[in-house]
Amino acid sequence: MLTDDERVTIRDVAARAGVSATTVSRVIKGDYPVAQATRTRVLRAMRDLDYVLNVHARALSGASTKMVAFVLDDVTGPSFAYVAKGVEQQATAEGRLCMVCTTHGDPARELAVVEAMREQRADAVILVGGGSLDDAYVERMTHFAHALDKAGSRLVLCGRPPLGRDVPTTVVEYDNEGGAYAMTSHLLSQGHRHIAMLGSDAPGHASTTKLDRVRGFVRAHESFGVPYDPDLIIPTGFGRADGYEGARRLIALGAEFTAVFAATDMVAIGVLAALREAGRRVPDDVSLAGYDDIPFAADLEPGLTTVHIPTEELGRTAVRLALNREERQHVVLGTHIVVRNSVRPPLRGQ
C-alpha cells in the first residue's frame, strides 16, 4: 500500500503525459477546453499510474464530486430501503454516485453528516424520514440549506415538511397526515370506537412524521364525532420490538380496545406477536392496521391492512428535482389505504 509520500500526484501524471500540471487539472475538472489528443494522453497517464483523485482537493477547487448523499435513520428499515432504491436508480440515471449515511435517529449526527457532505460538495444531500422539531435543530438545518445553495448544492427534504417559505430546499413529501386520517376513518367506519395508536412521540422527542400521523388519527375521530382516549395513544419507536413492547404495555394496563393502528408496518408486526402471546386473535378479537405497505405486509397471516407510501417514487423524485431545478421544487405525493384481512367490524358486545 502506498504511503502519503508515495501516492501519485498531478505532477506525476503531467510528467508522464508530457503536459503541465495545469492541463491535467483542466482535464480532471472538465471546465476548460483541452485538445482531444492531449486529453487522451492525460487519461492514459492517469490509468497507467493508477492515479486516484484527491476528493478534498477537488472540493477546495470548487468542482462537483458528482455525488448524491442519502441520509437516513436506519439502513435496515424496509421502507427506507425502498426509498434508497429509488434514490440510487435515479442517481445512476443522472450520472451520479450515491453515498448512504445513517444517523441512528440522532439529530446531532444528522447535522454533522450534512455539514460533512457540504464540505465534500455533494450535488445534493437528501434527508429521509421525519425531522426534529427542536428550534435549535431547525435553525442549524436552515443555515446548512443556505450554505449548500450558495455552494451550488441542494438540501432535499424527502418525506418531511419544508423548513420555511424562504429556505432554499427541494421538498418531496407524501400525504402523511392524510394517510393516517384515511386509515383511522376506515377503522371507525367498521364500527370501532376504542382504537389504540402505537407510535406517537415520547415527551421532548417530537418528530414531524409521528406528529402528522397522530394529527390524522385525532382529526378522523373529530370528523366522526367520536371521542378518542388519550391513554390509548402510546409512545413507541418505529421498529418491531417497539410495537411488541408497546402492545404488552397496553395489554398490561387493562385498557379497552378493539383495534390497533400501528404507526408503521414493523410496529404492527410486533403488535401482532404480542396479541398472539396474550391469546387475542387478529382480526376476530382485535383489528390491526399499519402504515408504509412494506412488501411482506401482504404475506403476514392475516394480510395487513395498511397505508401505502410510494417509497421508490419518493426517492426518484427527490434526486430528479434536486438535479433539475427548473422543475417545481415542492411536491406532495399521494397515499392510500390497502385493505387486506387484518381489519373487521368488532364483535357484538365489544
From TrEMBL:
GO molecular function, one term: transcription cis-regulatory region binding
Signal peptide start-end: none
Domain HTH lacI-type: 8-62
Highest rank taxon of the organism: Bacteria
Keywords: DNA-binding, Transcription, Transcription regulation
CDD domains: HTH_LacI, PBP1_LacI_sugar_binding-like
InterPro entries named in the record: HTH_LacI, LacI/GalR-like_sensor, Lambda_DNA-bd_dom_sf, Peripla_BP_I
Protein name: LacI family transcriptional regulator
Source organism of the structure: Nonomuraea jabiensis
Organism placement in taxonomy: Bacteria, Bacillati, Actinomycetota, Actinomycetes, Streptosporangiales
